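Retry 2 of 3 after timeout on previous attempt. Resubmitting C-alpha cells to design endpoint.
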C-alpha cells in the first residue's frame, strides 16, 4: 500500500532534508561573513588604490601574482585536496603530513628556478622592473601552499569561521598596506607585491596557529611514514592527474595577464587585472564559499548515496547568485569603472564588459571543480583544462599578433565560456543530474533576469539625468544615476529570487529571529 504524502513516515525524512539544507546554507553564511567583510573592505579601498597607483603597477603585481599563484596552487602536488576525502580522521592527518612534505620539497625548487631564470622571465613579460621581486616568489609559493593545506583541514572539521578570519587577515593586511604605501608616496609595483606577500604570510600563520592549538598534538601523534606512503599510493591520482589539471586550470586563469603584458604592455595587463578583479568579486564572495562547503559535504554525501541531491541544490543556488550580476556588468561595466576608479580606468571597464560571460561561467564552474576528485575521475579535468589553456593561448596570441586587444579578448571570452560550460555540463551529469535539469536552472534564471536587465538597458539608453559632473573627482551624474538604478534593480531581483527558494527563505528567517532574540536578551541584561 502506498504511503500518503503527509504520513508520519515521511515527516522525519522531510525534516532531515530541511535541516540538511539549512545546515548547508548556514555553513555558507559562516564563510560569507568573513568573505563579505573582505569584499566590502576591498570595494571601499579599490577607488583609493586606483587613484594612488598607476595601471602599470597593477600590471607588475599581476605578473608576480600570476607566477606565484600558479606554482603555489600545485606546491603540495595537490595532495592537500585529499585531506577531505578519507572517512578516518587518522588517515586525513597523514594526508596533511604528506601535503606538507611535498611543500617543503617544491619550495626550494621554485627558489632555484628564480635564481636561474628571473631576468629571462622578466624580459619575456616585457616588465624588466619585475626581476628583483621574483626573489619573493618562493616565499609566496610556500605561504599559498601551506594556507591551502591548512584550509582543507579546517574545512574538513567545518571550522569555516576560522577560515573566514584567516581570509579577512590576508585581504585587510594586503590592501591596508597598499593604501598605506600609496599615502606616504611609496606607490609602485614593488610595494603592491610586498603588501600582497605580507597578507598571505600572516593569513597562513593565523590559520596555522588555529590548527596547532586545536589539533597540533593529534596530527603529530598520528603521523607515520609508513601510513603517509600508503596515503601517497591510495591517492596517487592527485599528483598524476589532479596536479596537471590544476596547473592547466590556474594557467588558463592567470596566463591572459602574462600574455597581455608580453604582447602589449604592463599597463594593458593592469587594465585587465583591475577588470578581472572586480568581476571576480562574486566568485570570491559567494562561489568560493559555496565551493568549499560543497567539497566538505559532497565527500560525505557521496558515501551516503546523496551526492546528486547535494550537487543539484548547490548548482541551483549558484545560478541564482551568478547570472544577474554578470549580465548586468555586460551593460554598465564602462560606466561603473569610470565612476568608481576614475576616467583613466574606463578601458578596464570595457574589458570587464567583454569578460563578463567568461566570468559567469567561472562562477558556475569553480565550486564544482572538486567533483572529479570526489568521483575519482581526476583524469577528466586534464582533458577539459587542456582545451581551456589551448583556447586561451590561441585567442590572445591571435589578438597579440594582429595588435587587436579587443579581438583577443572576445575570442578568449567565447572559447573560455564554451570550455567552462562543457565542464559544468560534464560535472553535473557525472554527479547524476540530467542535462535538461542543468539547462532548466540556467534558462529559468535567464528568463527571470531578462526584464530586470531590460530596465537597466532602457535607463542607460534614455537616461533622464542632465549631463553634469559632481565633485572635484568629475563624476558623471548620468553614470552615477545608472549605477544606483542598477543596484536598486539588483536588490529587487535578489529579493524575489531568494524568496522563491524555500530553504534559503527559512534559513534567513531563522537567522533574523535568532538575531532579534539575542538583542532582546541583551536589552533585558541592560
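Retry 2 succeeded. Sequence:
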Amino acid at each position: 500500500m502506498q504511503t500518503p504524502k503527509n504520513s508520519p513516515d515521511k515527516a522525519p525524512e522531510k525534516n532531515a532534508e530541511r535541516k540538511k539544507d539549512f545546515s548547508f546554507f548556514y555553513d555558507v553564511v559562516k564563510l560569507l561573513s568573513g568573505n563579505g567583510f573582505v569584499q566590502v573592505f576591498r570595494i571601499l579601498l579599490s577607488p583609493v588604490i586606483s587613484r594612488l597607483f598607476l595601471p602599470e603597477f597593477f600590471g607588475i603585481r599581476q605578473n608576480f601574482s600570476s607566477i606565484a599563484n600558479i606554482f603555489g596552487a600545485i606546491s603540495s602536488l595537490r595532495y592537500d585536496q585529499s585531506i577531505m576525502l578519507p572517512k578516518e580522521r587518522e588517515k586525513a592527518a597523514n594526508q596533511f603530513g604528506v601535503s606538507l612534505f611535498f611543500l617543503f620539497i617544491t619550495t626550494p625548487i621554485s627558489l632555484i628556478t628564480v635564481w636561474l631564470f628571473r631576468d629571462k622571465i622578466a624580459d619575456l613579460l616585457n616588465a624588466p622592473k619585475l626581476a628583483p621581486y621574483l626573489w619573493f616568489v618562493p616565499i609566496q609559493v610556500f605561504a599559498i601552499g601551506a594556507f591551502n593545506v591548512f584550509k582543507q583541514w579546517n574545512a574538513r572539521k567545518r571550522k569555516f569561521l576560522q577560515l573566514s578570519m584567516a581570509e579577512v587577515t590576508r585581504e585587510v593586511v594586503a590592501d591596508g598596506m597598499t593604501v598605506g604605501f600609496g599615502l606616504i608616496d611609496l606607490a609602485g609595483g614593488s610595494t603592491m607585491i610586498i603588501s600582497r606577500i605580507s597578507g598571505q604570510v600572516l593569513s597562513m600563520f593565523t590559520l596555522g596557529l588555529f590548527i596547532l592549538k586545536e589539533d597540533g598534538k593529534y596530527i603529530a601523534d598520528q603521523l607515520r611514514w609508513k601510513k603517509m606512503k600508503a596515503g601517497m599510493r591510495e591517492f596517487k591520482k592527485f599528483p598524476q592527474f589532479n596536479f596537471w589539471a590544476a596547473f592547466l586550470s590556474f594557467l588558463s586563469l592567470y596566463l591572459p595577464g602574462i600574455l597581455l603584458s608580453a604582447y602589449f604592455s604592463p599597463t594593458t595587463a593592469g587594465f585587465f587585472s583591475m577588470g578581472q578583479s572586480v568581476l571576480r568579486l562574486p566568485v570570491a564572495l559567494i562561489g568560493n564559499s559555496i565551493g568549499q562547503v560543497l567539497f566538505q559535504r559532497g565527500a560525505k554525501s557521496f558515501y551516503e548515496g546523496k551526492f546528486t541531491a547535494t550537487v543539484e541544490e548547490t548548482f541551483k543556488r549558484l545560478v541564482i547568485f551568478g547570472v544577474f550580476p554578470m549580465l548586468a556588468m555586460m551593460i554598465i561595466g564602462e560606466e561603473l569603472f569610470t565612476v568608481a576608479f576614475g576616467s583613466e580606468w574606463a578601458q578596464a571597464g570595457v574589458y570587464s564588459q567583454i569578460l563578463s560571460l567568461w566570468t559567469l561561467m567561472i562562477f558556475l564552474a569553480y565550486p564544482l571543480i572538486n567533483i572529479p576528485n570526489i568521483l575519482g575521475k581526476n583524469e577528466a579535468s586534464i582533458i577539459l583544462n587542456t582545451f581551456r589553456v589551448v583556447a586561451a593561448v590561441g585567442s590572445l596570441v591571435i589578438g597579440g599578433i594582429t595588435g587587436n586587444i579587443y579581438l583577443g579578448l572576445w575570442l578568449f571570452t567565447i572559447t573560455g565560456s564554451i570550455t567552462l560550460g562543457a565542464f559544468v555540463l560534464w560535472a553535473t551529469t557525472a554527479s547524476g543530474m540530467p542535462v535538461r535539469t542543468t539547462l532548466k536552472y540556467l534558462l529559468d534564471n535567464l528568463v527571470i533576469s531578462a526584464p530586470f536587465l531590460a530596465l537597466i538597458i532602457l535607463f542607460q539608453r534614455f537616461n533622464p539625468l542632465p549631463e553634469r559632473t559632481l565633485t572635484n573627482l568629475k563624476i558623471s551624474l548620468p553614470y552615477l544615476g545608472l549605477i544606483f538604478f542598477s543596484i536598486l534593480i539588483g536588490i529587487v531581483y535578489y529579493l524575489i529570487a531568494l524568496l522563491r527558494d524555500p530553504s534559503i527563505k527559512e534559513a534567513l528567517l531563522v537567522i533574523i529571529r535568532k538575531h532579534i532574540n539575542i538583542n532582546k536578551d541583551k536589552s533585558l541584561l541592560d
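Attempt log closed. Residues 1-20 have pLDDT under 50 and may be disordered.
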